[in-house]
Amino acid sequence: MPGVNEEINLFADLALARRLERAEGDANAKFVEAHARLFPESSAAWIEVAGAYAMFDGVASPCTQTFGLGIFETATASTLDEIEAFFRDRGAPVSHDTCPLAGIELAALLSERGYTPIEFSSVMYRPVGNGVNDGRLSERIGVHAIEPGEGDVWAQTMTKGWSEEVPELKESLLELGQISTQRKDSVCFLAEIGGQPIACGGLTIHGGVALFAGACTIPEARRQGAQLALLDARLRYAVGVGCDIAMMCAAPGSASQRNAERHGFRIAYTRTKWQLLTEAA
């Protein structure tokens, strides 16, 4: 496959799913912790129930959900009672991003309790390797991990890059960017041309898994190779700190998924997000 020199020999089994789900759960939990530390009035918090991480980051935040439900321990009615109470006490919707390897029994339990599927996502992975090894990398674009004092620049770049893509979050993007730069076990990268920031991306690390997320390019600088440069830089950083797996998530069939597959990522599984219907809550 283009961009990967070594054969992928990691099977998409329960062991891999546990690593990937814990990596994303940990990344979101660290985000919630940073939010609580920077903005105590947010009441951001998270708990662990039967191996699942349930986090509250605000009523409308995409981080307000669970990861890992049913993957580490069997989810039961009492498990869901505790999780639902956590969200209900905070006036938040109850949502679970679930892996199919948790079994059909979990889907049946969620259906019985009044949940409905609202979203699918492709969870993708590849060996870290040594970068994208792609001749299309632009020599004009420089990428570096941000230094102390560059957090505001990174947050502003992220805000410009995502404001058109997620208009429902436009008012909170700058704050989200500021929180991201303060998350533990996380590294933020800037891509520049001539010293001017044009794109950014994030990397969180847990258990040898490098999770890539939040990459975006400002509108006027798109289609110049910034995302490829960011991917290459983050892969090289990940191998340098001892990671063996890179992970990304994308909407099924999206351009993001296709781009990831072009550079050696393969789909581990399709995750389903379930949400408890308001009337059932």
Describe the structure.
The chain is an alpha+beta fold and 281 residues long. It has 2 domains: 116 residues, no CATH class; 115 residues, Aminopeptidase (3-Layer(aba) Sandwich), CATH 3.40.630.30. Helices cover 32% and strands 28% of the residues. The protein contains 7 helices and 11 strands. Strand 7 and strand 8 form a beta hairpin. The radius of gyration is 19 Å and the shape is globular.
Overall number of domains? 2
Percent range of helical residues: 25-40%
Q: What is the helix/strand order? A: HEEEHEHEEHHEEEHEHE
Shape: globular
Question: On the 0-100 scale, what is the average pLDDT?
Answer: 91
Give the uncertain stretches in residue-range form. 1-7
Oligomer: single chain
Say how many strands there are: 11
Task: Round the Cα radius of gyration to an integer and report it.
Answer: 19 Å
Please state how the strands of the largest beta sheet are arranged side by side. Answer: 1-2-3-4-11-5-10-9-8-7-6
Beta-strand fraction estimate: 25-35%
How would a crystallographer describe the biggest sheet?
11 strands, mixed
How many H/I helices? 7
Structural class: alpha+beta
